[in-house]
Amino acid sequence: MTAELVRGQNHPLPHTRLEIRVSAGHPVVAAATLGDEQGRIAGAEAVAHPGAAALPGVEVPRQAATEHRLAVDLEAVRDAVHRVSVLLALPVGVDGPDRFGASAAPVVTVTGPDGTGIAGYTITGLDRESALVALELYRRQGAWKVRAVGQGYEGGLAALLADQGLDRPAELAGSVLEAVAQGLARSVAAPPPRVPEADRVRRPAQAQAQAQAHAQPQSPAQPHTPAQSATQGQPQVPAQPASLGQPQVPAQPATPPAPAASPAPAGGPVDYTHPGRRPAPAAAPPPQDPAPTAYPTPVAGDATGWSMDERLYNQVWGMFEDLARTTAAYRSACQFAESRLDQELDRALSDPRNRIGGAGDAARAEAKARHDELTARAQEALDRDLAQLAAESEVVEPALPAAYARWDSPVWQAYRVPTEAPMAVRLGDLHLPERTGLRIPFLARLPLTRGLWVDSGRGHSEAAGLLDDAELRRLALDSAVAHAVRLLAVHPADDFRVRVIDAAGAGAAAFAPLVESGVLAAPPAAGAAGVSAVLAQLTERVDLLQMALRAGASEDLPPGLDTAEELLIVHDFPHGFDDRAVTQLRYLADEGPAVGTHLLMIADREEAAAYGPVLDPLWRSLTRLTPVPDDHLADPWVGHAWTYEPPAFPAGSGVLRQVLAQLSDARGQGRPYRR
After folding, report:
1. CB atoms within 10 A of CB 671
2. Is residue 268 part of a domain?
3. Which domain range does residue 530 map to?
4. DSSP assignment of 515-578
5. Is residue 97 part of a domain?
6. Per the count of CB atoms within 10 A, which of 231, 274, 415, 428 is most buried?
7. Which residues lie closer than 8 Å to 631 by C-beta, 6 or more apart?
8. Burial, 253: exposed, middle or buried (Cβ in 10 Å; 0-12, 13-18, 19+)?
9. How many angstroms separate the Cα of 14 from the Cα of each of 90, 122, 544?
10. Collapsing DSSP states into helix, strand and coil, what is residue 398?
């Protein structure tokens, strides 16, 4: 049975040789991109399109049409390929609408090598989009799955390719659409005439030749073409992909084949004959439903990468994406069930005959039963996926290195200052309301491309509403210190510095462990004079490094200039800041990350409201974090509002002072502040 997917839902693939069928209400161009784990494509050579229809493992049609068939062999794609995205675009110069919303919704179906449906997806909700990612086949824990995407782009094929990381996407999009519009690509071949049933019986020799053609071996790297299965005496199909037009229907032998011989041999040509139209043998057993696909046993670090840290990083992001999409599928299914229930009840009540007697009650009961069945199936799928992700989390979390681990992880008991920086750092945890106990580590790549802002205001959090202002500020300060200590702990001792601006001195107690351990680059700056001095020094440093970077003259930097990365913690902003200091702060936020100078702001945006919109770019340039759980982070796939939970040292734990002691020893006990 074909699984009907909704946007964001995934489904396991029982085969690696597949056919993807596209049906649209108007001519469309079909293409495919081969991407890495993040869906990024390396270049134009990773795009199969009408001008270059065949790539290893993928072949697409060469012209616009209302019906398409794409041939896919997942065993033949390169090892670096983790996502095969199927694209649809409206052609230019062809009569028809200029947006998908002006015609019937496209339908995409994934079938097996014998034509049996695996998964289908009707792409609804389109409006002004002229190009879209219909679905994607992706590799997960050594197995392949299909996911319904339905992501549209008003900017057309160029915007879609740019979103997948292609350089100069407009050039490739223009050449593809121009080739289709001018008819430079080969036309779709007309399907051969169907062989009458009587002729099949009278021509056993032809059927034998057809069977021999099916037995010929074929390289998995080359998708099947109908020309390879054509026989003498039948209309010859031009050499072209199986996805172009209707495939040739092979002749059938006089005696029905045994059930074991009906599928095409592995590696051989694909038999596209619909299994429901084959004459069944007299003693054939009834078809059995395929056994449910069992999830593989979770293993920490089973993602791709050059090192264990990279594999764990990719695995965590895979869990993040899987949880986002499986939850999106559940929510979409529940919304669909509610919508259909409302429609069925409206139809039932609109008929006056159903308002009298038991007909109306029966109609409502039937509608409610269908609604409950849909939601129960959606809940069952969600529970199954969440159980698998929870099992994976239980394996992955204990294996995380210090940079990715929680503060209560045993890995910190054996902490030693690293000799090189990791590829990412943990900023907290994320979860969704469907299962609050399943926490996904929130990892940020290093070096940081954006500064951090710990919001000491109330925001939209219910937890913040239960605290007074003083307690909220204290938690924000403690959270900022935890972030700063983590950044110090995951970098080599001399490669990362921390400076502090505490103009009013209100954070002296929280900053005391940093001051006492001697890990700060200088004492915390206080007062307006201290604010001005630190900002002037850092601004000059960023200017020099920027000029050296742009001129390629790093050897001309002044002697003794410290080029290590720096983190500036700003507490109680905007206290002690004048207009010049605010301008310098904005400059550091914009230009500092490129040369290793980063901001960590502890501030309430409302307290800086007097500056007006001049500070809006500053807030937008920083990653907002909160000291209490808050729903404000949106994932990049389906846009869920995730609950962010800040990092915190365990109550009564000595991990903070233990880590700072290790850093202090690595830098030299009692080492004076760097100027």
Report:
1. 11
2. no
3. 443-667
4. HHHT-SSSPPB-HHHHHHHHHHHHHHHHHHHHHHHHHT-GGGSPTT---SEEEEEEEEETTT--
5. yes
6. 428
7. 460, 461, 641, 642, 643, 644
8. middle
9. 31, 21, 58
10. helix
For residue 101, give the DSSP letter: G
Residue 572: per-residue pLDDT: 87
Closest CA to 502 of 615, 589, 601: 601
602 and 491 belong to one structural domain: yes
What tokens appear for 453 in the block?
């802002």
- Cα 531 from chain centroid (whole Å): 41
Helix (H) or strand (E) holding 465: helix 462-465
Question: What pLDDT does 285 receive?
Answer: 45
CATH value at residue 110? 2.60.60.30
Does residue 562 share a domain with residue 627? yes
Give the Cα separation of 48 and 55 in Å (integer).
6
Structural domain contains residue 406: no
The label of the residue with tokens 């693939």 reads 13
Q: Let me know whether 45 and 155 are in one domain.
A: yes
| Bridge partners of residue 532, in order along the sequence | none
For residues 386 and 488, state if they share a domain: no
Predicted local distance difference test score (pLDDT) of residue 306? 83
From 181, 201, 233, give the residue that closes a domain.
Answer: 181
Give the pLDDT score at 176. 85
Amino acid identity at 366: E
Q: Indicate whether 385 and 509 sit together in one domain.
A: no
The residue behind tokens 């290793």 is 596
**What gap in Å lies between CA 278 and CA 627, rounded to an integer?**
65
Here the CATH number for the domain that contains residue 474 is: 3.40.50.300
Element counts in the chain: helices (H) and strands (E):
13, 21
List strand residue ranges (DSSP E) for 605-667, in order.
Answer: 622-625, 630-634, 641-645
Q: Which residue has the tokens 């139209």?
A: 277
Q: Computed from CA positions of residues 245, 250, 251, 254, in that sequence, does the dihedral angle turn out positive or negative?
A: negative
- Residue 140: what pLDDT? 85
Tokens of 650: 């365990």
And the tokens for 51?
A: 């001008």
pLDDT attached to residue 205: 36
Q: How far, in whole angstroms, is CA 19 from its chain's centroid? A: 24
Could you give the CA distance from residue 590 to residue 621 in angstroms, rounded to a whole number? 7
Give alpha helix (H) positions in 552-638.
579-591, 616-620
Instruction: Choose the final residue of a domain: 181, 204, 225.
Output: 181
> How many Å apart are CA 188 and CA 156, to the nearest integer?
24
Give the pLDDT confidence score for residue 230 in this predicted structure.
33
Q: Do the bridges between strand 143-153 and strand 630-634 make them parallel or antiparallel, or are there none, so unpaired?
A: unpaired
- The amino acid that residue 636 corresponds to is P
Q: What is the pLDDT of residue 20?
A: 94
Which residues lie below 8 Å from residue 285, measured CB to CB, with a gap of 6+? Answer: 259
What pLDDT is stored for residue 400 in this prediction? 95
Q: What is the pLDDT of residue 674?
A: 40
Domain shared by 558 and 650, yes or no: yes
Residues 177 and 46 occupy one common structural domain: yes
Q: Judge if 372 and 505 occupy the same domain.
A: no
Query: E strands within 297-446?
Result: 424-431, 440-445
Below-50 pLDDT ranges, the chain = 184-292, 669-675
Cβ contact 599:534 at 8 Å: no
DSSP 8-state code for residue 102: G
pLDDT in the model for residue 376: 93
Closest CA to 638 of 3, 156, 137, 7: 7
For 365, half-sphere exposure in the C-beta direction (CA atoms, 13 angstrom radius) is 5
Q: Quick one: tokens of 463?
A: 């937890």
**How many whole angstroms separate alpha carbon 578 and alpha carbon 600?**
19
Q: How many domains are contained in the chain?
A: 3
pTM as predicted: 0.61
